[in-house]
Known about the structure:
This protein is of the alpha/beta class. It folds into 2 domains: about 5-175 and about 240-310, Up-down Bundle (ABC transporter transmembrane region fold), CATH 1.20.1560.10; about 330-345 and about 370-590, Rossmann fold. It has helices spanning about 10-45, 50-95, 100-105, 110-130, 135-150, 150-200, 200-205, 210-235, 240-260, 270-310, 395-405, 425-430, 445-450, 460-470, 490-505, 520-535, 570-575, 580-590, and strands spanning about 330-340, 375-380, 385-390, 410-415, 420, 435, 445, 480-485, 510-515, 540-545, 555-560, 565-570. Strands 6-9-10-3-11-12 form a 6-stranded mixed sheet, sandwiched between helices. Strands 2-1-4-5 form a 4-stranded antiparallel sheet, covered by helices on one side. β9 (about 510-515), α16 and β10 form a beta-alpha-beta unit.
Amino acid sequence: MSVFSYAKKYKKQLILGPAFKLMEAIFELTLPLFMAYLIDSGIREKNISMVYAATLYMLGLSILGLLCVLVCQYYAAVASQGFGTELRLAVVKKITQFSHTEIDEFGSDTFLTRTINDVNQLQLALAMLIRLVIRAPFLSIGSIVMAFTINTSMGFIFLLTVPIFSFILYILMSKTVPKYQQVLSSIDELNTITSEQLTGVKVIRAFANEKKMEDKSAEVIEKLANRYIDMTKLSALMSPLTLFMTNMIIALILWVGDINVSVGQLQTGDIVALINYMLQLLAALIVVANLVTIFVRAFSAKKRVEEILNTTPKVQTQPLDKVLPFESENTLSFQDVSFHYPSSSQDVLKKIQFDLKKGTQLGIVGPSSQDVLKKIQFDLKKGTQLGIVGPTGSGKTTLIELIQKFYLPTDGTIFLDNMNLLDLTTGEVRHSISYVSQKSVLFSGTIESNLKMGFPNATEKDCWRALEWADCLEFVDDLSMSTAENGTNFSGGQRQRLAIARALISQPSILILDDALSALDYKTDLAIRQTLARLDFIKNSIIVSQRISSVKEADHLIVLNQGEIVAQGTHQNLMKQSIFYQQIVTSQEKEDN
């Protein structure tokens, strides 16, 4: 899809805007003729009435030109701002439809640059398209034509000016455009650094790394500044070169004009008109050069924005069609499921270096893919609680994200309520499942607005009931209590409990807690797990944790290590049969003591 398809509803402005600008250009081309007439027939002949008449005509044309400019500017503003608004909304809507795969491939920081900076460049390009694309070429050609009508030899001087000036512009533009691409790259890099530092400011301060991060930022900022300066140095040559060329050509016009005046082929007013036309021609050529710069930038922005708009999500986000009944014996089944993350954003080969001598045979071996999960297989029966444990990086969170259709498995099949997950819409899947992630995210607003994200039609009674289930009543006394961005006015444990309440308010069939009890003390952890066990609407709960105490009461435990299930069963069975599980338990008991 082309980005300019979002400008279709502004056809009126796209047609009338340039038309009014063309009329203004016609009036502007006519003014030097009246100026010549005023000088030759009015001032030189001392004809006062002719001076007044020519002055009134020029004033009238100037007023009409001004009105045309105002109308054109209005249409340009309406079209460009409307186009930018609709395009930006489309980009944001598309980004919200992306699955985790596309977000990983693009990187979240580039979305900000493309949504704001790139769309602004396209807005500017459309505004300039309406205001100047017809006017500037028309003035250039019109000035040359008018020069020929005044004097043929002068017309050839005008004609010769265009290729000389165009060559200078070409040299400058060919050097400037690549440098602008480097500037865009540096802006993306600066956005990434800034985002990282704002997100991890507490970690930076905890390790007293402020100076190191300041130096890192300074390095990126300095690189951006140097690239801007390099680009600006070249752009700055435009003004002196143009001024020099303008003065040289005006001097040539005056010299040739003086000869023609002396032989009676030109009059004084014609010389003044020719100088005005030359100034119009050079000004129009400079505008054309600036337009080229704007459109080159817009072309780069267009490709970046269209890359988002034309990307088809691996997982299509769809509305709720129906609620899953969960009548089958197995609520969830993994059948030989493997998964690896897309490698497009990472180097497939990293610093490979070798020499192959003539006459030798080279063999290359290695794993076919870097699977994060490998041949995962288990069945979760209705009414049971599943615990998933394993060291950091073992694939616990990835497994949970596959259940919610954030990613699609690379191999194997996932069944939810005895139906292939691929055949279910995201609405059906995510309406049936409530998920609390490792990082409890709260949004600026109130307790009530955050809770209703999980169930928009919730009543006040529903909100208080969910808060009670999540053990939040000790610190929440009013649903209108404000929540800061990211919930920074609550402790880590309070944020986790509010996130659990938000997940419970819709009374989901499956509740997933992905290390969502890690910030709670053992007493609160136990109380919430006991409450969850009593809730009848939860057909299955899945608790992911590194803390054995949070999952040992589960009906079934899965132990992951390096993406593989190394053991599964109850806590008691695993303590007898799995050495790996025993090591985890022993290490945590030592830490607790």
